[in-house]
Amino acid sequence: MSNGGGQVHGIFGRLPGRILRLVSVVFGVCLLTFVLINALPGNVATAVLGDQATPEQVAALTAQLGLDEPIPQRFLNWLGGVFQGDLGSSLVNNQPVWDAVAQRIPVTLELVALALLFAIAAAVPAAVLAVRKPGGVLDRVLGGVSFSFLATPSFLLGLVLILVFAIELRWFPVSGWVPFAQDPIGNLETAFLPALTLAATPFAYFSRLLRADMAEQLTREDYVTTARAKGVPRRAILFRHVLRNSIFPMMTMVGLTTSLLVGGSVVVESIFGVPGIGLLLIQSITSRDVPVVLGVVVFIAAAVVIVNLIIDMLYGVVDPRIRHDHADA
Amino acid sequence: MITLTPETRSLALPPPARRIRPRWRIGQAQVAAAVLIAMAIACFIVPLVVPLPPPSGGDLAEARLPPLTPGHPLGTDALGNDMLSRSLYGGRVSFIVGVGATLIGLVVGGFLGMLAGYKGGWIERVLGWLFDVLLAFPALILALTIAAYLGPSLQNEIYAVSIFLIPATARIARASTMSARKEEFIVAARLAGVRESTILRRHIIPNISSPLLTFAILQCGTAMIIEATLSFLGLGIRPPAPSWGNMMASGQQSLADAPWMVLVPGAFLFITICALNLLGESLRQARDER
């Protein structure tokens, strides 16, 4: 897809096109989720009330939810509400969906941020160590570790971590959540294992990408040969030149992983009983709380799209080479 | 009107078929393939041939026996069911959903991507928008939502898992089609007036199938992970029917005193996905080296 503005210079030149695309994608996300949830077989009102409900109760709830209107009309009504910041309210406890989401955002954000931090903090040194001697012991160990992480579903890793660190060693609580404001240390204790679980897959992606990119630069790039010829120590070449250049592909990867992390947080939050957005989603799916499911899914997808846009733009800020004609993927 | 002279006809023929002839690296791919075949045989054929205890309806008196108990080599679960039997029957779900969803993703995604890449224009724009929208959802969340609203069954699980495979496969198909489209023999075929459906079938599909198949093998592992996660969260196959995911979910409650209830199905899943990823990566490396 070309944006037509190949000659536009500057970081923000392409912004209008991107925003347009963003808006169209977010609109599509809303439409798809709404249709998915409302048009699939099964009557929402019956599902909410259960099999024992009388026809009158079903009719009353149907009218209350506006389910008797045609789907396009309902979609427009809902979309109109969204523009006014009204995502509807929960069928279970009448709490406005936006409040429920807003309450739980900080928790999920904390987990995701911690997981990213763990993953990056571990992947950078691991990749540097591995690339110092490609094919060496450390390289193989890192390869094996990241390979196994990619083959382990996060719930399995979470359960193994609970088994080892919470049940056998008793270093961390098995599950539960202490809010940061209440007890910062306790908060970190409860957040540690979930964040570690969440960090495994991104760690594997980051370390593989970094290692491959750095190895490629060390063998192919002329500036490395020049630096070596000048007698720059290998360590300095690695850290000052090669690692710096490898940060750019890493950033794209970080953007791509946010989606993965948010998806993963559903699983991790439900294993560790962390009251974040993921747990909210699972709970409302179980209780058939349609407005909450709709709100949460749309919120998550929109957030992922926006984060990727921001990262895409940051990429342009950091690396001037791609400001000009960087083809849309 | 272009007539087919012997010269243009020879241009319209595809170049000698480039078969996948990977340079096997240190037998990795063979080992992985052997493990996969062994696992599939164990899940689909062994229960038919070897007299195993039934996967459900076990005896509560035999509950929570540890592995290596006589008669129950991998132990029993909280309801006294044999873990080996449950793991083998449960593996069928992983294989069926993983392979089924991958096939749907390959066929639907491959076709849509090929269409977008070959036709261009508004078809490409509409499909591109659709793929962007689908890719905006974290894979698991899309699968969760669909699975929840379709209801728990094997078939629905396949649909739920395949949804996220479609856009990713379509993107690869689109990119490969766009580069294949520029090849001389395809341009020649178009100029020679070969019908579009024939070009797609005879020229484009053989050219894009190799990257797509490699990608599909790698995606199959992800599909199995998503399947296990759905089952674990209670949105896949419901107990007493076993699947690796729901076995681990029921084992979670007794993690402290009967960890094998999680670790046994976990090991089966881990080995299968390792083998799949290893196979996919060796094939990709072999392709890249060519």
Question: Which residue ranges of chain B are poorly predicted, with pLDDT under 50 across at least 5 consecutive positions?
Answer: none
Instruction: State the end-to-end CA separation of chain A.
Output: 8 Å
Count every helix of chain B, treating DSSP H or I runs of 4 or more residues as helices: 11
Q: Could you tell me the number of beta strands of chain B?
A: 0
Question: What's the average pLDDT of chain A?
Answer: 79
Overall mean confidence score, pLDDT of chain B: 83
Please state the structural category of chain A: mainly alpha
How is the biggest beta sheet of chain B arranged? none
Detailed description of the structure:
The complex is a heterodimer of chains A (329) and B (290). The longest helix of chain A is centred in the last third of the chain and has 39 residues, at 234-272. Chain A contains twelve helices and no strands. Residues 1-9 and 323-329 of chain A have low confidence and may be disordered. With 329 residues, chain A is mainly α. In chain A, helix 1 packs antiparallel against helix 12 (290-318) and helix 7 packs across helix 8. With 290 residues, chain B is mainly alpha-helical. Chain B is 71% helix and 0% strand. The two termini of chain B are 39 Å apart. The mean pLDDT of chain B is 83. Chains A and B meet through helix 1, helix 6, helix 7, helix 10 and helix 11 of A and helix 5, helix 6, helix 9 and helix 11 of B.
